Amino acid sequence: MRRDQNLAIIGAVVTGAVIATGLVLLLIARVSPQFGASVRAAAVDVVTPLWSVVRAPFDGLGKGVNGIGDYFGAVGRARALEAEVIDLRARLQVAEADQIAFRQLSRLGRLENPQRRLVATARIVSATQGAVVQTALVAAGRNQGVRPGQPVIAADGLIGRTIETGLGSSRLLLLTDPQSRVPVLVQRTGQAALVSGDGGPLLVLTDRLGLQEPLQRGDRLLTSGEGGIFPPGVPVGFVVDAGEPIRVRAAASPRGIGFVRIEAAYAAMPATAATLPMTDAPVPVEAQRVGGIKGLVRGLDAPSTDGAT
Amino acid sequence: MRGPAPPLRLMNPRERRSFWLGHWRLGLPALAVLGLLLLATAPLPLSLPLMPPLGLLGVFVWATFQPGLMPPWLAFLLGLVADLLLSMPFGVNATLFAAVAGFVRWFEVRYGHHAHGFDWAMAVAITAVHALLTIQLMALASHPVPLEPLAWQWLTSLFAYPAVVALCGWLQRAAFGARTAT
Questions:
Q1: pLDDT in tens, B159-181
Q2: CA distance B155 to chain A (A)
Q3: Fewer beta carbons under 10 A from the terminal one: N or C of chain B?
Q4: ipTM for the complex?
């Protein structure tokens, strides 16, 4: 009887200690968001190949079904594409003229336009529509040059940005995640705003700057390039509900697409090296011996002129 | 049914090997929850967060089936793995899984074991409290999340519970028979 009581007390103490440890971990995560980054990267490397293998037969099956569908719809599709080509040719002529004008204006204004740089093209292995965190896994990691904070773009538009990178795989934060914020421009009005996720299938347009011109259903949103991560001009989505809050459907979905581009951060903040304080104070002998602060001690290293040998 | 094993020093090498290998069953609940956690990271071709909290349901079910094999400290470690795999701040699932294992153990000791329907209702209540506490703990870790996606997840957990019970029950029968191991 006493033994049972003692065991119950020990069990309660252990349970309390374990829960307290969990709360301490949460406080550490609050103070240091990068806590455990290397362990997370290793976990990404474990999970990504697993789902890559599991989904392979389903991808093959899907490809087969799509192939059959494409075969039967080939004529209709060819006609639709011909119509699209005619429309696109007209748009291309306008865009070429715009490009020339833009180049001339850039030269006049001495505008320095950073170039987009492709880091890797990779396959989306899994996109998790989690209730708390919404992420996707891609099969490219540090070995391919991927680093946290790089934009990920599909053929139809922006997908998100990298947050964790393993050796051969990375985790992306999707646009629908509540932590996601993307600076955008409304294409029709040029108004700047932010697109954020709220865990649901649609995005929310917030923090509109400037004149509050009413938006219309179908208004396209493009990245503005502000913030230095996402390159400007990438489609983000289009307005589906212009009421309050303004709801946006993402231009590209991470589910069901094959490959994405991972690009370098468009205009990363320059890393500025800390400059040493300039001082006339004498440098300690120990610092001279180890060769530290060489520039400052060069004069002191010169041969002595006081006659000592 | 075999009698208790002889003391370790009296065993011959073969008996000793089979004695140690026979202990793999003790890790089965933890392995089952790990499998459920991996399953929870599976890609679903849906735009709503409908993947149920399989890891939490696994911890709950094993805490009722085999309380001795799902102590709070083990649930804590499994919660850390859940945080890792689901890319959540360390401590959210760890704290909640440990609290669930501790609560179920206390409840079963005090009020005894119950029928499947009662356990189902209890699982529904626990997943609802888990969702609400997840919001609070995520806010504590500076990652505020809205309620709506968690409400969807709670809804799917209503239907996922019998499936998790069936899976864990099958494993329980295969490894331990219809009895508690400890």
A1: 999 999 999 989 888 877 766 65
A2: 12
A3: N
A4: 0.74
